[in-house]
Amino acid sequence: MNFDHSHKRARDAGTQAANLQHWDQRYEQLTAGRFDGEVDELCVGPVQVFRERANQTVVQAGRMSPDRMSVALVCTSEMPGWYCGHKLHGEHLIGISANGEFDMVAGAGMQILALSVEARALHELVAKLDGPSVEAPALPALLPANAARLGAYKSLVSAALQLGDTAGGAGPHGAARRMLALSLTSALLDCIRAESAALPLPTTAASRRRIVSRARQYMREHAQELITVPDLCHAIGTSRRTLQYAFEEAMQTSPVAYLRALRLNQVRSELCREPATSIADIAARWGFWHLSHFAADYRSLFGELPSATRAVANTLATPAS
Q: Quick one: DSSP state of residue 321?
């Protein structure tokens, strides 16, 4: 049984997203300043646990691997978050089903303690506990949990990650690995047992989530075009006021500011991927025609000029002599 531990730092949101295995996701930085993120990850057999945090507010969207199920404890700081329409403040337990899509606004300083397990291993455990005809319960978006359950979950996942830090490259003996994987799989099952019904999403929150989801999809599909707020309202069939309220509640920003951040995040990604393309050409591709204003907006969001991003990307891409 494998035992792999890693601790990775990231200086931009895109790298942070790529540092996680088993997740198909994209990140966009929303708040201004240099990005500093880290992922502490342990994979043991069919189980993955990780701790993720970043110093900036990040929009996370994507899907779980098609053969895994996941739960996560999100611990917010002073800035609240948002998960699939639910407002997050304090500590919350969330769930993502196999191949399930999710969207989250992870506020600056939020810590995520996640546990994912191969669906096969989870079904095998359910069959041993409850019989072969019983299916593993489906995962809802937000799971109710009392303080005792949250504390037990946090303690177990933290202990597993600490073991990864201290065990060295070889890790513990094979029998200990199997017991660790079983304990973590059992913990995930305890979190999603059928009696733990999903917390309902308020009608207003559900409506606003749909509005934000449609707006973000339209923005991504037309990000290289000129998009005005009236155009956006017409495209998704809502009023300016409703659109504004939905974004302020879910994304903690306005539609215009989010669109600008979306484009700037795309520019940053392409500055790293396309070293032969000029900064001006990449900026123009994403609708930034005034280079001095673009550079100021870029520096305001990421804490550095586009040329500094390009320089670091080129340094990382240059093989050591």
A: -
Angle, nearest 10°, between helix axes 229-236 and 255-273?
A: 100
> What are the structure tokens assigned to 85, written together?
């329409």
Number of H helices and E strands in the chain, helices first, is 11, 12
- pLDDT tens-digit map of 161-218: 998 888 665 667 778 889 999 999 999 988 887 445 556 666 677 788 889 989 999 9
Query: How buried is residue 182: exposed, middle or buried, by Cβ count under 10 Å (0-12/13-18/19+)?
Result: middle
Model pTM score: 0.85
What's the chain's length in residues?
321
User: Which own/partner pairs from 313-318 qualify as long-range (CB within 8 Å, at least 24 positions apart)?
Assistant: 313/271, 313/272, 313/275, 314/275, 317/275
Contacts for 144-151: CB closer than 8 Å, 24+ residues apart: 144/93, 144/196, 144/197, 144/199, 145/92, 145/93, 145/191, 145/196, 149/93, 149/190, 149/191, 150/73, 150/91, 150/93
Question: What gap in Å lies between CA 181 and CA 43, rounded to an integer?
Answer: 9
Q: How far apart are the first and last CA of the chain?
A: 37
Task: Please count the other Cβ atoms lying within 10 Å of the Cβ belonging to residue 41.
Answer: 21
